[in-house]
Specification:
296 residues; 43% helix
Amino acid sequence: MTGAHPHREHGADAVFLRIDGTPLHARVEGRGPVCLLTGGLGSSWFDWDLVVPFLTPYRTVVRFDRPGYGLSAPEPADRPLPTAAGEAHRIRAVLDALALPGPCTVAGHSLAAFHVEAFARLYPARTAGLVLLDGSVEPEPRPLPAPGLRDLAARAAAGAATAAAVPYLLGPAVRRLAARATTVRREDLAPAPLVRRCYRTRRSLRALLRENTRYLDMAAELAGLRGTAPLPAGLPVTVLAADDGLRGRRTEEWLAAQRGLAALLGAEYRSTAPAGHLLMFDRPDAVASAVLDTAR
């Protein structure tokens, strides 16, 4: 079901794990207590490159690409639809395959905040701390109808776009535009060769579209878990919000939502400014501090 073998990639040991039959790419660096970093919609392992050097003197840092992203293979068509519980299982399976069975601090950015919170609720004995980095917030979410049809539509759209060479021609450019739009520095700091390698593919577009169609379903699923699977008593939880420094209505509403999430979870609330949603690029030091200060 799971397995691992090392392979050199991008100047470090890249480990490929077979998780539920799908080869996933992971990185393990540093020393000390374990922390796992997982990115939001469309993210790859290298989006954490600026954060990792702050952590590795004190933590064993695990990063991995979900199916279809980065260097990971896509999931077969017969696999279940993406769910928060399924992603929590994937995190546990990655840690197991890496022979890291002890408690772990899990940090999730954006959509992946759903995943790590679900992990903490479903695997409390495996969780040393929980860090939500500008995490997605959906008050009173409801799942959308026809999940199977929506998933088929996402797959079909990815196939049609690939037939027209859209990912190859536009994938890296769209990735860079998205990164520039969500950082205050207005640039994508990811290595250009890796962006081209990872975002010219059908698998990355399909993964993005599939996860995007499941967003509200995952939010509703997590809301249900909050009522049935409480966080462990005394678990350190940190919510780190990105503050772009603008005092407009949109910024204030977002920060209020992040404060509300912290209150809901009994978490420590922090904000970092100036920072856009991709705060790993704008304030990697603040991201690392939030991880290091949670579950010392």
